[in-house]
Design a protein that fits this description.
It is a single chain. This protein is α+β, with helices and mostly antiparallel strands. It has two domains: about 120 residues, Winged helix-like DNA-binding domain superfamily/Winged helix DNA-binding domain (Arc Repressor Mutant, subunit A); about 80 residues. It contains eleven helices and five strands; from the N terminus they run ααβαααββαββααααα. It has a three-stranded antiparallel β-sheet with strand order 1-3-2, sandwiched between helices. Strands 4-5 form a two-stranded antiparallel ribbon. Helix 2 crosses helix 5, helix 9 packs across helix 10 and helix 9 crosses helix 11. The longest helix is centred in the C-terminal third of the chain and has 21 residues. The chain is elongated and about 70 Å long.
């Protein structure tokens, strides 16, 4: 866009919006003094908000293919690719974006995450080797989430494992899907009722009444967030 071009205005029709954290306005915006860094930070907030993934990321390769992004970053004396590289380096140095590099048979690739709890968890997972090739050329890596056993879940969230509790856990494994047990433990933790009897009551209710997804969606989502947070904080 040249200086002679003007913006025609936003549409009055409802459309997609981009959530921008408050810290962007209170901390980042006053500090950023480089136009390329500002553009790549806003671009990342926009693009990552549209990724349907627990751990969204942007690869440098896909950004290099975005012609509109490159055209917006281009400036005298630098190629578009060099301008992108400079903007990303500045955003990473400031701490608004996190970068991790993975090696593939065809070469190295850089992946960028928002510096948020999910982004930090993703980089930690990469550092610990819990990422793997996905087989999708557009999304080349996927998180390999190792699922702890029901015994580990109990010890991490409820309390010490005793022979009696171990027997009840074995019975639960035989009677309920592993996903149910994980979710029920998550609900117990969320409600601060760290008793196996409480977990069993949840499981029994699901078994008798049916685990209606519509009714339990809120509880399940809480459990999933609690489970993921505890796993990546460890």
């Amino acid at each position: 866009m040249t200086s002679s071009q003007t913006f025609s205005g936003f549409s009055s029709e409802a459309g997609e919006t981009t959530p921008i954290p408050e810290a962007f306005f209170s901390e980042l915006l006053p500090a950023i003094d480089h136009l390329g860094e500002l553009k790549i930070t806003l671009y990342a907030l926009w693009a990552l908000a549209r990724r349907e993934s627990t751990f969204p990321y942007l690869s440098q390769g896909e950004m290099e293919e975005d012609k509109l992004l490159l055209e917006g970053l281009r400036r005298p004396g630098l190629s578009a690719a060099e301008a992108l590289e400079e903007a990303l380096e500045r955003a990473v140095a400031r701490g608004s974006l996190l970068m991790a590099q993975l090696e593939f048979p065809e070469g190295a690739e850089r992946f960028y995450f928002l510096n948020s709890p999910r982004g930090r968890a993703a980089v930690k997972a990469i550092q610990q080797g819990r990422w793997m090739p996905s087989g999708d050329p557009r999304r080349p890596v996927a998180l390999q989430l190792h699922r702890p056993t029901v015994y580990n879940l109990y010890e991490q969230n409820i309390g010490p494992l005793t022979p009696m509790i171990a027997e009840r856990l074995r019975e639960a494994e035989a009677n309920y899907p592993a996903r149910w047990i994980e979710e029920a433990i998550g609900i117990a933790v969320e409600n601060n009722v760290r008793k196996w009897s409480y977990v069993e009551a949840i499981l029994e209710r699901w078994k008798v009444q049916g685990k209606d997804e519509q009714e339990d969606r809120g509880e399940s989502e809480k459990a999933r967030r609690k489970y993921l947070k505890g796993w990546f904080d460890g």
